[in-house]
Fold this sequence. Notes:
Chain A is an all-beta fold. Chain A has no helices and eleven strands. In chain A, the strands form two sheets. In chain A, strands 2, 4, 5, 9, 10 and 11 form a six-stranded mixed β-sheet that branches. In chain A, strands 1-3-8-7-6 form a five-stranded antiparallel β-sheet, with no helix packed on it. The relative contact order of chain A is 0.34. Helix content of chain B is 0%, strand content 49%. In chain B, the strands form two sheets. In chain B, strands 2, 4, 5, 6, 9, 10 and 11 form a seven-stranded mixed β-sheet that branches. A four-stranded antiparallel β-sheet of chain B has the order 1-3-8-7, with no helix packed on it. In chain B, strand 4 and strand 5 form a beta hairpin.
Amino acid sequence: GQQLNQSPQSMFIQEGEDVSMNCTSSSIFNTWLWYKQDPGEGPVLLIALYKAGELTSNGRLTAQFGITRKDSFLNISASIPSDVGIYFCAGLGNYGQNFVFGPGTRLSVLP
Amino acid sequence: DGGITQSPKYLFRKEGQNVTLSCEQNLNHDAMYWYRQDPGQGLRLIYYSQIVNDFQKGDIAEGYSVSREKKESFPLTVTSAQKNPTAFYLCASSIGPGGNEQFFGPGTRLTVL
């Protein structure tokens, strides 16, 4: 079946630094969603992408739908302590009825 | 306020007992979903419902059951047949099925002793 990989698995950064993470697959996807999850809470939707090449921002967050349709990227600029959490990507394939979720990237921000 | 609620937040049960997790939404969404989350893994789909009185098995439905008698409610029962039920359970909803954005509840952590 379709699978998503996320890298890096975890990252430690200094407050104020920019962050980049990605989500890749061997399959083509039509929709990408990016979520953030705080410990013990449900994921919160950050950005939704619907077209190849699309670049969408939400405050300090920017996500892109890869041209090949097999990947997506999330950037966070000028990180702050509340950015700590796990970031998940989710993709919907050509023939998929439901989203597939990646394993997540765990972000830690050091003061 | 519109949203998705799950209760309880924490649940403890003895092995061999069935347990039902509640999920309610007042977003007027047609589709609802149940996911299971284990440490270090992505969300795995247990069951989903695209419309009232209809539901479909997801990737890991064995040992679980659901009902969808009302649009706003989608309870999940973890039966004694589920071999490893301790996990974090997440409910989600979307306006419609397929590619619509899913919104999640706060989750229920189930621990089976």
